[in-house]
Design a protein that fits this description.
By secondary structure, the chain is an alpha+beta fold. 31% of the residues lie in helices and 33% in strands. Strands 1, 2, 5, 6, 7 and 8 form a six-stranded mixed β-sheet that branches. It is globular and about 45 Å long. InterPro entries: DUF4279 (IPR025459).
Length: 133
């Protein structure tokens, strides 16, 4: 029986920049990165440059568990993130991807500390919800 699972991605993105600048500034290796204009597959190209840090899909009934995994990796890098964003005119966001199985719906709320952290970064939050069974 499949279980509901959650993945969280933190992205710093913009028109065109060198993702290695973020890697070197934060001393964190991204889960993945790409450059605007790269070919994803035939007929589809990247529309922006991105540096991304993500969890794996993990069984979870509370999205805060995965958000906090990312937050714990970058919480001491807040000032560097804001400086890089301002210097290179970038944006950042958290993508919360929720796969619902067997009608097991994870708790979907953001605690005060997470809201404060997101605000301090000037980040957005995107929720992607997929119901399978």
């Amino acid at each position: 029986m499949d279980k509901s699972n959650v993945k969280v991605e933190f992205s710093i993105y913009g028109d065109k920049f060198d993702p290695n600048i973020i890697t070197n500034t934060m001393q964190i290796t991204p889960t993945r990165s790409w450059i605007k204009g790269e070919v994803i597959r035939e007929g589809l190209i990247r529309k922006e440059t991105c540096w991304e840090l993500a969890t794996e899909y993990e069984e979870s009934l509370d999205i805060n568990e995965q958000i906090n995994k990312i937050r714990n990796l970058i919480k001491n890098k807040r000032n560097q993130i804001v400086k890089v964003k301002d210097t290179y005119n970038l944006e950042c966001k958290f993508d919360v991807v929720i796969n619902i199985e067997n009608n097991e719906i994870p708790a979907m709320y953001l605690d005060k500390e997470i809201i404060k952290f997101i605000y301090e970064l000037g980040a957005e939050v995107d929720f992607d919800l997929y119901v399978y069974s």
